[in-house]
Amino acid sequence: MLVTLVESAQEGLAAGSANALAHARELADVLGTHVEAATFAGAPEVRDGLAGYGVSRLHVVEHGECVEYSPECWGEALAQLLDDTRPDGVLAAATDRGNEVLAQAAARIGLPLATNCLNVAPATGAAEGDPAWALTRQRGGGVLLEDAELSAPTKLVTVLAGTVEPSAGEAVPEVDVRTFVPQLDTDPARSRIVDRTAREAGVSLATAAVVVSGGRGVGSAEGFDMIEELAELLGGAVGCSRVATNDGWRPHSDQVGLTGTKIAPELYIACGISGATQHWVGCRDARRILAINTDPQAPMMTRATYAVTGDVHEVVPAIIAEIRRRTE
Amino acid sequence: MDVLVCVKRVPATGGTIPLTADGRDVDTRSLGFTIGPHEECAVEEAARIVERFGGSAAVLTVGPPQADEQLRYAMSIGLQQGVRVTTGEEETDPEATAAAIVDAVRTLESETRPFDLILFGNESADAGNCQVGIRVAHALARPAVGGIKGIEPQPEHGTVRLRRELPDGIEVYAAPLPAVAAVREGLNLPRYPAVTGRLRAKRAHIRTIEPELVPGGLRKVRLRPPAEAARETVVLGHGAAAAGPVVDMLAELGMV
Predict the structure, then answer these.
(1) How confident is the model at residue A130 (pLDDT cuts 50, 70, 90)?
(2) Could you check whether the bond before residue B155 is cis, i.e. omega within 30 degrees of 0?
(3) What is the distance in angstroms between the Cα of B123 and the nearest Cα belonging to chain A?
(4) Do B224 and A290 touch (CB under 8 A)?
(5) Distance CA B149, CA B182 (A)
(6) pLDDT for the residue numbered B13
(7) Does A125 touch chain B (CB under 8 A)?
(8) How far away is chain B from the Cα of A114, in angstroms, using its nearest Cα?
(9) Segment holding A82, helix H or strand E
(10) Which residues form the Electron transfer flavoprotein alpha/beta-subunit N-terminal domain (chain B) (predicted)?
């Protein structure tokens, strides 16, 4: 049996959870087993989405300490659920939370954990009774792929979003809901959430359809005035490279890249950004990229959809002027 | 406040990453080495906490003797003690790494007192397994929160406030000390090491610990570059004269 840890979103299943379920479904078919799901909250929302993935049973963890997210409490509760149900494997979305909860559970049971996986399958030639899984993980945010083998009585895996087509299995007529009440003592070594602030509505870097970013070529904090102006004209968000945050030109929250925000806009305009790996893994999912750079051989220029060779201080103001001329 | 920072020596990779002939590892013969951006922030934060509250800051790595370079970088920022848990060149798996760190921390703490805070990068810059800090925290029976971009120690209350950013908002956690935090870049802006700091770090003694390494259940088989769809690049022009074609393109996409 496989267990998928699922979370609810505003409308039913979170996208990452649906992706994890699809992975579990495929794997269960190969292994000749079935899929169950586990959730900490929002049972009614997730329940209806589960039947389409052939999930027969939903374990709902119920405990006062688990109502609010707590890494240690959720991890401990999951560890107890796994001890109770003894599945062959657990799949969760490779989100911050999915990785954290599975790592907490893995530490508690003493199991290995493979995070950020792209695919999971039984290893070929694996011994009967101790079947290892062969998986591919992303390293360095996708700079490299790692083929690995995971051997454990219960295999814990997190899978990256968008890595499998959501192919629903045979619909199960009724999802059996089972309540699981963990035993959580008052362990003092526990963090507690004391404040939560929702992000303000508006154009955010992560979700904007257009992102205009500046890098080393912009040259200064003041140089970003023109980047902001172009972004505003296009109804987009401002981004930047790591150089711009390290030099204090922009706040870290604007950074696109491996250690900043990963984005997938319709159009990404990279101004004076060479396109080092650290930056590239953050913007490569953009549908189209316009690169503006003095060096036509810069990685960003050769990988872009559109390229303009030139100094951003000449090109960007000219684009702004041309947009104003046509829209006035 | 006594703070320990755990760092990993990783290749400083640029655009393309060379692999060894057998695909087992990164070919580092032509590469420099560094620590990841998250860990640079952890080192800086440890220095700031000790500057503000007093106490001591130490840096620890699990790696080959060459990893002293990374310990000396942290010491040049102001961390006083450097500890190398010596392994071979081969990367250790997350369970083995965590167990080696736990043993080393127990040894160090048995000689003085528990570290109030142990800081990790949220994930290492290369393997990125996202779990070593949590495993260490659990083995030492300490709370751990990841993704941290704000640390506010409250030693008078024996607690620390930890702030993290999520796609939909900001969460603040309170944890009793001693605690573990896995931090992200953006926590602070790391300083450049001063010349005096570099000279001091160069001469500093580095303590070594020989660990017992027990392999865990996740085994790296090989590395390979991801397939990348080749894009056809359309050159829209040079300099200011390209503005017309660029705005044509924007208009075609319905963006102006």
Answers:
(1) low
(2) no
(3) 9
(4) no
(5) 9
(6) 75
(7) no
(8) 7
(9) helix A71-85
(10) 23-218
Closest partner residue to A199 (CB to CB) among B147, B169, B216 is B169
pLDDT of residue A42: 63
pLDDT > 60? residue A168: no
Average pLDDT over residues A112-127: 88
Residues of chain A above pLDDT 90, percent: 73
Which are the contacts of B129, defined by CB distance < 8 A and separation ≥ 6?
A113, A115, B94, B123, B218
Q: Domain residues of chain A, as ranges?
A: 2-180, 210-327
Q: Which residues of B touch A198 (CB under 8 A)?
A: 168-169
Which residue in A10, A95, A113 has the most chain B C-beta atoms within 10 A of its own C-beta, making it the best mutation to test that interface? A113
Scanning the structure block, which residue is given the tokens 């959870």? A17
A222 CB contacts (<8 Å, ≥6 apart)? Answer: none
Q: Give the residues of chain B that fall short of pLDDT 70.
A: 14-15
Rounded to the nearest 5 percent, the helix, strand and coil shares of chain A are: 35, 30, 35
The answer to whether domain A2-180 and domain A210-327 are alike in fold is yes
Model's pTM, two decimal places? 0.92
Does CATH place domain A2-180 in 3.40.50.620?
yes
pLDDT band at A218 (very low <50, low <70, confident <90, very high): very high
Distance, in angstroms, between B40 CA and closest chain A CA?
12
Asked if pLDDT for residue A304 goes beyond 90, the answer is yes
Of A26-35, A274-283, B73-82, give the range with the top mean pLDDT.
B73-82
Question: Hey, are the CB atoms on B137 and A107 less than 8 Å from each other?
Answer: yes
Give the gap in angstroms from C-alpha B205 to the nearest C-alpha of chain A: 30
In terms of CA atoms, which chain A residue is nearest residue B189? Answer: A246
- CA separation, residue B63 to residues A239, B68, B75, B129 (Å): 36, 9, 17, 16
The CATH code that applies to domain A210-327 is 3.40.50.1220
